[in-house]
Specification:
globular, binds guanosine-5'-monophosphate, five-stranded parallel β-sheet, 44% helix, alpha/beta
């Protein structure tokens, strides 16, 4: 059994983080994905407790004030946060814990847990990012504009990450991400 590690995966919405993380979970048997709490409404097909814990703002703020969240941030008008207890538990069980969270959350995690590995997933270009966001067809125009603005803010901080990966060719990106996680996990004493 390997020791537990914490991996934070960020990148603009539409960079393909979700697909990459799903493949990572298939290919790294001891990887475990944390389920965040959010105040945003579920998209079609999203399941409470699987994709997110969908909660009201009041409940979210109670969790934050009670210290139940390892980090939390407001992104594009909604709140998102990582439940602390399940992350601690899975790290103790020797899991490679994966957080798929935004840039603000990533740096909060680094402040608290300096040994966390921060990975940034970059789209091939800003134009491609917009095309992917529109192609998804799940967001209205105002939301797309907000997410494009957020993307530019996020891209500006990619240099601060431990590892930056361009998601151009999916298979190559999966390979690179799996190698990075395995390398870091195998090097942990
Ligand atoms: P979406 O609404 O597309 O599911 O997520 C929007 C953004 O929130 C994404 O960048 C996603 O990674 C981020 N996010 C999801 N969960 C968390 C969380 O627990 N904390 C933070 N800080 N960001 C999160």
């Amino acid at each position: 059994m390997r020791n537990g590690n914490l991996f934070v995966i960020s990148g603009p919405s539409g960079a393909g983080k979700g697909t990459l993380v799903a493949r990572l979970l298939q290919e790294v048997p001891d990887a475990w994905l944390s389920v965040s709490a959010t105040t945003r409404s579920p998209r079609e097909g999203e399941v409470d407790g699987v994709n997110y814990y969908f909660v009201e703002k009041e409940r979210f703020m109670q969790m934050a004030e009670a210290g139940e969240l390892l980090e939390w941030a407001e992104y594009s008008g909604n709140c998102y946060g990582t439940p602390r207890a399940s992350v601690t538990e899975h790290m103790g069980l020797g899991k490679q814990v994966i957080l798929e969270i935004d840039v603000q959350g990533a740096f909060q995690v680094r402040d608290m847990i300096p040994e966390a590995h921060l990975v940034f997933i970059e789209p091939p270009s800003i134009e491609e990012l917009e095309r992917r966001l529109r192609g998804r067809g799940t967001e209205d125009e105002k939301t797309i504009q907000k997410r494009m603005d957020a993307a530019k803010t996020e891209l500006a901080r990619k240099e601060e990450y431990d590892y930056c990966l361009v998601n151009d060719d999916l298979e190559l990106a999966v390979k690179a991400l799996v190698s990075y996680v395995d390398e870091q996990a195998n090097n942990t004493k």
